[in-house]
Specification:
Layout lengths: L1 H24 L7 H35 L1
Helix pairs in contact: 1-2
């Protein structure tokens, strides 16, 4: 349980940095501040869900191969 929490914290930090870098490379003058702040809050959390979903798919495929 502790390792899962630490993994989520690390992924949240990495994802937040990726989203921040992505938003900084774009032209922020055209983006409303509220939209930018919402993206910085929502996107890292959504990315964690996608990352865990991909991890679950990979482990299910690996376990299915072992069962055959």
């Amino acid at each position: 349980m502790f390792m899962t929490g630490m993994l989520i914290c690390a992924l949240l930090l990495i994802n937040a940095l990726l989203v921040k870098a992505f938003l900084l490379t774009g032209n922020l003058e055209r983006i409303d501040v509220r939209i930018s702040q919402a993206a910085q809050f929502v996107m890292p959390i959504a990315m964690i869900f996608v990352q865990f979903w991909i991890f679950d798919l990979m482990t299910m495929k690996r376990n299915n191969r072992r069962a055959e």
